[in-house]
Amino acid sequence: NAGVMQNPRHLVRRRGQEARLRCSPMKGHSHVYWYRQLPEEGLKFMVYLQKENIIDESGMPKERFSAEFPKEGPSILRIQQVVRGDSAAYFCASSPLSSSDVNYGYTFGSGTRLTVV
Amino acid sequence: GNSVTQMEGPVTLSEEAFLTINCTYTATGYPSLFWYVQYPGEGLQLLLKATKADDKGSNKGFEATYRKETTSFHLEKGSVQVSDSAVYFCALTLNQAGTALIFGKGTTLSVSS
Asked: Is the dihedral of CA A60, B51, B11, A114 positive or negative?
């Protein structure tokens, strides 16, 4: 049973380019969360998605950032026109649908480390 | 609002020393509490959890007790090892399906032999 798969593991982009980060949740998990970890800081919630729906994007920057979780395929976090300040580790987590499993916790991927040069 | 406050690091200990990492929380309602560990270059792994007051979570020699009266969930280990060197995150979630985890800033633990 594969865990949460994120790719790429490392991503280097020049300023102004687009970055696409992918996350495949655990089998049977239909909730996906994206977090950003800046150097020397904790994890900051960005967005929570279910299949084809954005449930909570209160942590997403208003511009350049978007996320989707299509019916088929992985969840994608997209950053347009990247700037140096976007350099961070981006983690995806998934959790089960059932409310009875709410205390199960969340399974995290290994993250994508984005470096903007 | 809901938040988690952890003691600031880094925490530097010698092998076999006693470890405490403090964590307090603010939450509306009754949250579940977690400790996650992040080893260098890796993602977060769930270390232990507690879902209601007075519950004790334990794993790999680490323990934490959910204290409602002090809104705390301090992490302890009686004898640390070099392999415990990592960043430790305290987190909470409200007991509703699909709610996001709220993390503290993390505490870096460095254990030397």
From this structure: negative
Cα separations (Å) of A107 from A70, A79, A81, B53? 20, 23, 30, 23
Give pLDDT tens digits for A57-116: 999 999 999 999 999 999 999 999 999 999 999 999 988 765 445 556 678 999 999 999
Contact assignment for B43 to A95 by CB distance below 8 Å:
no
Q: Minimal Cα–Cα distance from A53 to chain B, Å?
A: 13
Pull the structure tokens for residue A33: 């969360």
The two structure tokens encoding residue B44: 């977060």
Q: Which residues of B touch A44 (CB under 8 A)?
A: 103
pLDDT tens, position by position, A3-43:
899 999 999 999 999 999 999 999 888 889 999 998 777 78
Q: Which among B90, B62, B64, B54 is positioned nearest to B78, based on CA atoms?
A: B62
Q: Which of A42, A50, A56 sits opposite B100 (nearest CB)?
A: A56
Q: Which has the closest alpha carbon to A67: A80, A82, A49? A: A49
